[in-house]
Amino acid sequence: AKEQGRGIFRYYDVRLTERARERLFLESELRDALAREELIVHYQPQLALADDRLIGAEALLRWRHREHGLIPPDKFISIAEDSGLIVAIGEWVLRSACRQAKQWLDAGHDFQRMAVNLSGVQIERSDILATVTQVLADTGLPPKHLELEITETYIMQQAQLNVRIMGDLRALGVTLAIDDFGTGQSSLGYLKRLPVDKLKIDRSFVMDIPQDSNDMAITRAIIALGHNLHLTVLAEGIETAEQAAFLKELGCDEAQGYYYGRPVDAESYLKLLKESARP
Ligand code: C2E
Ligand code: CA
Ligand code: CA
Ligand code: CA
């Protein structure tokens, strides 16, 4: 039995070492990814549900490794967070997205809003207020065209502190969205006091509409809650016409998902902007 026990221990040990090695490898590669210009920002359309009008985009990070090809964010964002690299990378995404939005505005396009994801680590380990202020000044993007997305889970971890930081950010004139809403067990007491403009209903509630009646009830409740708090509500992960119709009927304000468009590079997003301008 002793022998067997050791064997099992060694088996897990090897697997852990492999995972740890992969993470170490990705971490060291990620350190150089910015300088090697392997990081790219893609843009996913966001629409007004009432009339399917294009209103903006969410900036989503992509990593094209020179040997290993496209590495999905789910594989490297947590590594970037654990290592602190997300501070530099997140600032780069913010700057790139704001510069891009300013370019589209200057070209005369009707572009309302660029949404950028903020990691909790950026809020904890850097002066995010100073960074956002500086990036807005450097790029010349009017603050009202920038929206920052922060996950519900992160906000609720340190709700009191985040209420203050979010208030400071919002005072700059940017808007704030709670990302992945419905998964983070918000206290309703805090939700009322949070300085935010928008709830983004998590994709997990949208994806089984109309098969899952519980998810439909939750979605309906989130929309009602958001509207009672005078917030805009956006549904994420809409993949079918049926889902879009259901959400529209419930009065959900905005939509994002493969049904409307996948995240695309800046050039392709510009085509969408031009098409949406046609009468
Ligand atoms: P998220 O912020 O919830 O972003 C939405 C994710 O859902 C994106 O995945 C998007 O491609 C995907 N998505 C959108 N519509 C659909 C749909 O209809 N069906 C399905 N199946 N998926 C859909 P992506 O780009 O792989 O990003 C994954 C996560 O990585 C993001 O989730 C976000 O948490 C993180 N992430 C991405 N870029 C950044 C960034 O610049 N900074 C930070 N801190 N996190 C980022
Ligand atoms: Ca997001
Ligand atoms: Ca989300
Ligand atoms: Ca479900």
- Structure classification: alpha/beta
The tally of helices reads: 12
Order of helices and strands: HEEEHHEHHEHHEHEHHEHEH
Fraction of helical residues:
40-55%
Which residues form runs of ≥5 with pLDDT under 50? none
| Ends apart, CA distance between termini | 77 Å
Quick one: how many beta strands? 9
Basic shape: globular
Task: Report the mean per-residue pLDDT as an integer.
Answer: 93
Major sheet: arrangement of strands: 1-2-4-5-6-7-8-9
Strand content: 15-25%
Keywords: Coiled coil
Protein name: EAL domain-containing protein
Domain EAL: 23-277
Describe the structure.
- The chain is an alpha/beta fold.
- The protein has helices at residues 2-33, 73-83, 86-106, 120-125, 128-139, 152-157, 159-171, 188-193, 203-206, 213-228, 241-249, 266-277, and strands at 39-48, 53-65, 69-71, 113-117, 146-151, 175-181, 198-201, 232-235, 254-255.
- Strands 1-2-4-5-6-7-8-9 form an eight-stranded mixed beta barrel, surrounded by four helices.
- Strand 8, helix 11 and strand 9 (254-255) form a beta-alpha-beta unit.
- Helix 1 (2-33) packs across helix 2 and helix 3 (86-106) runs parallel beside helix 5 (128-139).
- It binds ligand C2E and calcium ion (3 copies).
- The site of one calcium ion has 4 residues, from strand 6.
- One calcium ion (CA) is lined by residues 179-180, 200, 236.
- Residues 23-277 form the EAL domain.
- It comes from Methylomonas rivi.
- This is EAL domain-containing protein.
